[in-house]
Design goal:
It is built from twelve helices and twelve strands. It has about 325 residues and is α/β, with parallel strands linked by helices. A twelve-stranded mixed β-sheet has the order 3-4-2-1-5-12-11-6-7-10-8-9, sandwiched between helices. Helix 8 crosses helix 9. The longest helix has 19 residues.
Length: about 325
């Protein structure tokens, strides 16, 4: 991996991706990290707040590095037809997918230092035949054949302030989570997390706090058997593998500041168990990181916000944080 700009995919052009890309550039143009947008120039140039921005087409990442302070660089891969803000359409799906594939290809070739993805909406993609649950799984498929030293993900991590959480299950209906858990799945997520903490976050001796599934972490089996039969054996296996993992802990006592100081990441069993504390701690600045991939990938911890798209009121805090974190991880990998 060489020093280079980040590739920022535009996400769903009917959402707030174009607007927050412009706002992120305004915030970072003087200090960096440098990035260029992979997407549709017309959608970007017509975003709220872009009327006085020089949205310039580039052909190589080097051009983006040289011009970033003065222009918002874009690798122009046009949509087949204009998209209206707030009105997602399956017709945009081929372009959205192409933007992601292009950015990942640039990262795998080493010509960019990492990928940051603006939000996509799953429903329009599904209507167009997209077969992955989301960004993370798609990135795992795109990078599956690339060399990687360590436990391979992807595993989803969310960061906010001094909190890092990783997920064993992600977009599972809550009724299906217990059946989706297994010792092997928890161990895998724990190994990927521990290795990523060392490689990407500079934590020499990672400490993992493992959450239980049930209230009170099952009360020794009286409020559910998953802790006894699945989570506890997984924690033992992680420790036998050399990971400082502890638990299972009741999730409702795992996130106060005093407790957060005792671990480097919390390993959570399902989506809301992890995301509620992240969003409570820093609703605007949370970042999604894909662990265990041969490329660096981050994204803002929010969705497409179609309800406010085109109105000029979207906040770019989370995207700015994602860009900064991607650059930090890339520097550590170098």
């Amino acid at each position: 991996m060489r020093t280079g700009p980040l590739a920022l995919t535009l996400g769903d052009p009917a959402g707030i991706g174009p607007e927050i890309a412009v706002k992120a550039w305004r915030t970072l143009r003087g200090t960096g990290p440098a990035f260029f947008v992979v997407g549709d120039r017309r959608a970007l140039a017509s975003a709220p707040g872009a009327s006085d921005v020089d949205v310039r087409v580039i052909h190589t990442p080097d051009e983006a590095m040289a011009a970033f302070a003065d222009v918002l660089p874009v690798l122009d891969l046009p949509l087949q037809a204009p998209v209206v803000a707030g009105q997602p359409t399956p017709a945009a799906a081929p372009a959205i997918i192409r933007w992601i594939e292009t950015a990942v290809g640039l990262a795998l070739s080493g010509t960019v230092s990492g990928v940051v993805t603006a939000p996509i909406a799953k429903a329009p993609l599904y209507e167009a035949g997209f077969r992955f649950p989301g960004h993370t799984e798609f990135l795992g498929e795109l990078t599956a054949n690339a060399p990687f030293d360590g436990a391979r993900g992807p595993v989803m991590m969310l960061t906010a302030s001094d909190l890092r959480v990783t997920l064993v299950t992600v977009h599972e209906p809550i009724a299906k989570v217990p059946a989706a858990l297994s010792v092997e799945r928890i161990v895998h997520a724990g190994l990927v997390t521990a290795q990523a903490l060392r490689r990407d976050f500079g934590v020499e001796a990672p400490r993992l706090a493992v959450a239980g599934l049930n209230p009170h972490a099952g009360e020794r089996g009286s409020i559910g058997r998953e802790e006894v039969e699945i989570v506890e054996p997984a924690v033992r296996a992680l420790r036998e593998a050399g990971v400082d993992a502890r638990g299972p802990y009741p999730a409702d006592t795992l996130f106060p500041a005093e407790v957060r100081a005792t671990y480097d990441a919390a390993l959570c069993m399902y989506h809301d168990q992890a995301l509620i504390p992240v969003k409570m701690l820093d609703f605007w600045g949370g970042v999604n990181v894909s662990l265990g991939l041969p490329i660096v990938r981050t994204s803002p911890d929010h969705g497409t916000a179609f309800d406010i798209a085109g109105r000029g009121i979207a906040r770019a805090d989370s995207l700015v944080a994602a860009i900064r974190l991607a650059a930090e991880i890339a520097a550590r990998r170098r």
